[in-house]
Amino acid sequence: MKFQDLSLHPSILKSVEQCGFETCTPIQESAIPLVLEGRDVAGLAQTGTGKTAAFVVPLLDRWIRSKENRTESDEKLNNRKYKDWKPREFILVLVPTRELADQVSEAVEKFKGDADVGCATVYGGTSYDKQIEAIKSGIDFIVGTPGRLIDLYKSHVLDFRQVRAVVFDEADRMFDMGFRDDMKFILRRLPTDRQFLVFSATLNFEVLNVAYSFGAEPIECNVSRDQAKAEHVKDEILHVGNRDKPLHLLSLFKREKPKQAIIFSNFKNSVEQLSYFLNDNGLPSVAISSLLNQNQRNRVIEKFKSDQSTNILVATDLAARGLDVEGVDVVVNYELPDDPENYIHRIGRTGRAGQEGKAYSLVGERDVEALMRIEEYLKHKLPVGWIDDTDLLTEFNAFPSYDVRNAHKKTSGDRRSAPDRGRRPPRNSSQQSPPRGSGTAPHRPRREAPSESAEGSSSARHRDRSLGRHGRSGSPQGKGDSATGNSSTSPRASAPRATASQPPRKTNGKAPQRGRRHPAKGQKSRPVGRRNPKTVGQKISGFIKGLFGR
Question: Using the 8-state DSSP alphabet, how is residue 207 labeled?
Answer without folding.
Answer: H
